[in-house]
Write the structure tokens for this entry.
Amino acid sequence: MSTENTRSTNTPADDRSLEDSVVGDGRGLWTLAFLAGLVAVVVGGAVARYLAVHVPEWTAEGSLAEIGAAVEYPVYAIAVGLALNGVLAAAGVRDRLAPGFRTEFFIKTGLVVLGATVVFSVIVRAAGPAILQGLLLISGVFGFTWWLAGRLGLDERLRALLASAVSICGVSAAIAAAGAVRARREQLAYTASLVIIFALPSIFVLPWLADLLGLSPAVTGAWLGGNIDTTAAVTAAGSIAGEEPLQIASIVKLTQNALIGIVAVGLTAWFAFKVDRTAGEKPRAIELWHRFPKFVLGFLAASVLATVFAEQASAARLEDFDATIKVFRDTFLTLAFVSIGLEFKVTSLREAGWKPVGVFAAATVFNILLALALASVLFAGFTLD
């Protein structure tokens, strides 16, 4: 894709769009700083995986056994990334190594691999209500966030990122939206920071609230999968809630993941033909293709291939395939979460002001309430059997 095709007509030339940050301009990419930054991410990922494996063993005999067994690798990855962030910032080299923190690449690759775990036939057979919940929830939360951000006068691109992140699946949805609307890297980093800040507490608070409210396992799972922003955080929260909530939550969240493409196409069309249209210039349909985040196609293709394979393979081969795919998926997502921790800047939150934080907080509360209402209706009496 050419540089001309990856810039908005009304975006300043010195602003880096998401596509620019992923592809790069070919100058100085393989520098010592880039390699050192990449090494920091890989080392952080290795430490996070080590903690995820051994912390449950270390805490097995103590009062923290339940927490140690429930906490998933995303928490360790983000924590390690934030710790490395602090160390590198204190040493004065963090910004210099930043080109190696390839969050977008790791997330996109992990999402394509994640597609191989989404078997459409299983989703349809096991959780038909998840499709309806996903459509209603995404439409409602996206619309509310888009409206509120517009009322507060937020930038159109940040508005799109916030609405996509809180209504679909956090960072991955924000990346898809950023590619569609050509958002700046700073806007994506800001949105990702908000996702992390709000998702981490939800891993522990929402399963506790579900138990306090006496929700059934199916309703609990549908609630967690519907309103927690990231797939990894949903998995972590579902693990705390129990096996059946985890399964339902995963299906609901994967259903919402599959809708990323629809939202991306809608945003692509809106920005190509409305927001970024130059006066007197007739928009071209090819703009939809230039802006569309191509990794979404990889996600869908991987899902189709996995569905075909699942229908033909033996149980043993399917189990081996699933285990291998999950290793690759978890590896790339671990590196992505470490990178997010490394890229997080408190200054970016401070500079953006209170309005985006207020929008995200209000949308999160709206999401929690709407998801609870929908889950209570659509999954009442639902079981996996």
About this structure: Residues 1-29 have pLDDT under 50 and may be disordered.
